[in-house]
Specification:
The protein is α+β, with helices and mostly antiparallel strands. About 25% of the residues lie in helices and about 35% in strands. The chain has a single domain, classed as Dna Ligase, domain 1 (2-Layer Sandwich), CATH 3.30.1490. A 4-stranded antiparallel β-sheet has the order 1-4-2-3.
């Protein structure tokens, strides 16, 4: 089994953009987990683990929950855990809130 690299990305969105952004992330296919936080990342509101190939009816409950959240939240942060084969040059693993890791050590 080939090695995988994981990394986190933070995306700030307005409530109305939330559903479209999550749909796009699911379509990308390299997303392992999505965490939605209220405001600037203070409090997690929802977390959705995803597996490779989540589409159609399987994604419908996730999208329904995200749609309900979008109606309640005005500003939120989406934290995305991504995965890629190690040979694709993914950025170093970094959890949300950690300072960036430096290659010079």
């Amino acid at each position: 089994m080939p090695e995988e690299r994981t990394w986190w990305e933070s995306i700030k969105v307005e409530g109305g953009e939330l559903l479209d952004k999550v749909k796009g992330l699911i379509r990308e296919g390299n997303v392992r987990r999505i965490v939605i936080r209220q405001g600037d990342g203070d409090r997690p509101v929802a977390e959705f683990p995803l597996t490779v190939g989540v589409v159609g009816a399987v994604a419908a409950p996730v999208l329904a929950a995200v749609g309900a959240l979008a109606a309640l939240l005005t500003h939120c942060t989406i934290e995305v855990e991504r995965v890629a084969p190690a040979d694709e040059g993914a950025p170093p693993v970094q959890r949300p809130g950690e300072p960036p890791k430096s290659d010079a050590a």
